[in-house]
Amino acid sequence: MIADDRALVDRFLDMMAAEAGASKHTLAAYRNDLDRAAEILGPLGTASTDDVGRLGSGWSELAPSTVARRSAALRRFFGFLVDEGLRRDDPSSALPRPRFERPLPRILEAEEVRRMFEAAEDRAASDEAAATRNLTLLELLYGSGLRATELVSLPRNAVRPSQPFLMVRGKGSKERLVPISSRAQAAVERWLEHVASSSLWLFPSGKSHLSRVRLFQIVRAMAADAGIAPERVSPHVLRHAFATHLLSGGADLRVLQSLLGHADIATTQIYTHVDSARLVELVNARHPLATRRR
Question: Among residues 171, 190, 194, 278, which one is catalytic?
């Protein structure tokens, strides 16, 4: 990338950090995507609509999701240049727009989750530290819909008896309130008996906290205990189950978006696929035209 382009990209990333609150990981991803585009286009700051149109063939071997991400980065970059008066035209209309279907989330049936809890509760009855910890992890994963990173990095005092919610720092360092059930609170209280009062973490491991990889292993082992194929289960699958079963129980989509910490409601809408029959029934029963006779 030429010096002039590098200066423009630096200004763009400074804006993203200051105004959009983009994380270091996000900024690095934007820089990489813009670098890859410059390999085909040459100078980005002066790229014409025809130049940008070449990206479709240049990216033909890439996955649709990668093309979509790189196009989004360029679209935002060109928009920034126009807003800042650094160029008059916006060539974004020529960017490739791949069509792809978003994969549906893997889910567990409520009965399968119940079996996982029964197996975990049986093991925790021995009051063995590891079994008590595992049940607590399961309660928080399925009961609050936490992401794996959010869960393993909880501080020791994150759960307080007087507060039926957690303050969680999620993606982009954004904070949100997450409800915690009385079941999960009780599990945490039992687990804290095994955690040193000097620990910084609710789930300590060595000099830090439990790793995401170890959490993944624990969840799969609990699935195997319940007679469920381990490859079907992960911390994220339990988060999907939390969302899917809440929606099935009548939760509002906007409420679900807030609980999951999704920036875009479109991300949350993916869960509506699992309960289409209930949604059709709801429209047929509640829509004003449902009671109107022909």
Answer: 171
